Amino acid sequence: MVKVNGNYLKLKAGYLFPEIGRRVKAFSAANPEAALIRLGIGDVTEPLPLACREAMKTAIDAMGTAEGFHGYGPEQGYAWLREAIAQQDFQSRGCEINADEIFVSDGSKCDSSNILDILGEGNRVAVTDPVYPVYVDSNVMAGRTGDAGAEGRYAGLTYLPISADNNFAAEIPSEPVDLIYLCFPNNPTGAVATRAQLKAWVDYARSHNALILFDAAYEAFIQDPELPHSIFEIEGARECAIEFRSFSKNAGFTGTRCAFTVVPKGLKGTAANGELVELWGLWNRRQSTKFNGVSYIIQRGAEAVYSTAGQAEVKTLVSFYMENASIIRQELTSLGLQIYGGEHAPYVWIKTPNGMDSWGFFDHLLNKANVVGTPGSGFGAAGEGYFRLSAFNSRKNVNEAMARIKSL
Ligand code: PLP
Q: Which residue, by CA, sits nearest to atom 1 of ligand 1?
């Protein structure tokens, strides 16, 4: 009989969101009249920018002509999109990133998991706790961890706790690690990194020959012009970092799918024989073999994000969600709750009141206010006692959710 990948059997109870789905389904079955407001999963709610839709429609029409038809595209993405990204997201901020270092993909969730394909066994891997669960689960699936312990932490991973005690900024590890996952603005805590904090990580990575996997899926939500949007704004990051970006949250492409990964040329790792190997070549090879590119239509839509009209629409979308975050922050603060995040990120991170645990608060809000959020403990043991609310929703739903919570 065919053998299964035993690493999958090490995964704990399942990914967080299926468990939320299970509880919500059970609640809805028992209370079919309840009108739920979902501030749980970080999916966007507002329509795609007109500039993107128009570009996609034009691309569809082109596909209906012999001259404008596009079959397989370059696995790395079309040059015009890679050029726009390199120029507007990086070079305009003083980052030395070239178009051929941009790899367009169908999601940063996939990329941040798939990157393990090109990294070897035996790397000491550091993740924050709480953390975007994909980083941990993809390491488990790839056999880069041991079993989960009682707290749900996997043997072999280095967990860097983040909480109000350290201002949600992980301390640089005291033990040497080879691979570090950083996410700023952070999912789930909503924290953002200063230039000095990122520099400390880059300095650590360079001095330990470590690699930083920098997830900047939420960079568009940064409000303070002094804060860095990219790890490549930090000197030396080209020697030690890969960055993941996405059109999901800034331009509403969660259902449309387009993202990209930046792998600087010259960034190296070591082979088993000690030889230095460029990661760019390995990722290029990986993508060429296992990926066939994002559709022409969608890439044209993503390109329109960089047009003047697209930029204005993205700005409006981001402002809309950040206004939601501000409403959530204000309303919950007025109830005396301890609130974090939500200033440079679409997530508000709440200290659960009265010593309630995360799932207890989840059930409380679900049952009493019919509001769905995300238990902090689902993001890691150190997330226990916290709760995440997402600002991705209509204004009407955000206001209604806050009114219901206030009336409890
Ligand atoms: N990275 C982080 C930190 C996220 O929170 C998410 C989605 O919620 C993603 C990546 C996924 O992005 P994409 O839609 O590009 O796969």
A: 217
